[in-house]
Amino acid sequence: MKQGLIFILIFMLTACSSFGHGLAELTGLSFLHDRRDSKAIMLDEQIEDSAVMNLHGLDEIKDKSHFNITSYNGKVLVTGEAETEDVREIIIANVRIVSGVKLVHNEMIVGPISSMQSRGEDSLLTIKVKDALAEIQDKPGFDATRVKVITENKVVYLMGLVHEGEGVTAAEKVQNVAGVKKIVTVFEYIDYPSKK
């Protein structure tokens, strides 16, 4: 109980600098900047919801895993921990069959399930990374709301529809964030529109 209150307090104290960015996500304002169309955004939400519901209904993985499912333009990132390789394979196989999934990035590790403290630290690190991305001002056209940030065991995953230069800039910025153990980019790169 005490530990939970401490994390809430830390979150409240550190969230102030992320308030504008977080508010944009909560109110859907980031939707205005998203390179996905509304149909793709809705499909990603359906993929995530369907995958999580399906997985929570499987007794063979219950209490043997911790997973996060993140879909972006039909590409799904699976992070977390599975106690055994068999459990991880069941999770990945069930994500692959969800309607609308184009590709699965399997980043689940086989090992002990993370603690609530570790997950709380990951949440704080995600806030720090988002703040760092919001500071990028010298890259024309760069929009931090177009970069999805997922943190698992201090490994930061970056997703989104970006130009290659934007992806490089984002990864370089995140390298300077204290506490980041590793950066994994799972961007979908897009070309600049051709000039006629």
TrEMBL record:
Does the keyword field hold Ion transport? no
Q: Which PROSITE patterns match?
A: BON (PS50914), PROKAR_LIPOPROTEIN (PS51257)
Q: Name one Pfam family in it.
A: BON
Keywords from the UniProt entry: Signal
Please list the residue ranges annotated as the BON domain: 43-112
- Reading the lineage from the top rank, the first entry is Bacteria
Q: What is this protein called?
A: BON domain-containing protein
Per the UniProt record, the source organism is Methyloprofundus sedimenti
